[in-house]
Design a protein that fits this description.
The structure is a single chain. It is built from two helices and no strands. It is mainly α. Keywords: Membrane, Transmembrane, Transmembrane helix.
Length: 49
């Protein structure tokens, strides 16, 4: 679970950083924020089981 969260976090940060140089910055910025939020939510959701 840690590896998946780490990959989602790094990918989200990458999309957030690259969003200002891509064609649709708002879309990629929002997608990056959602990926970072998912990477933080996954361990809390599955950690109690």
């Amino acid at each position: 679970m840690f590896i998946v969260s780490l990959i989602l976090f790094v990918g989200g940060m990458l999309l957030t950083g690259l969003s200002f140089s891509l064609a649709a910055p708002a879309l990629f910025f929002a997608l990056g924020i959602l990926l970072v939020a998912a990477s933080l939510a996954l361990p809390f959701h599955f950690g109690t089981r």
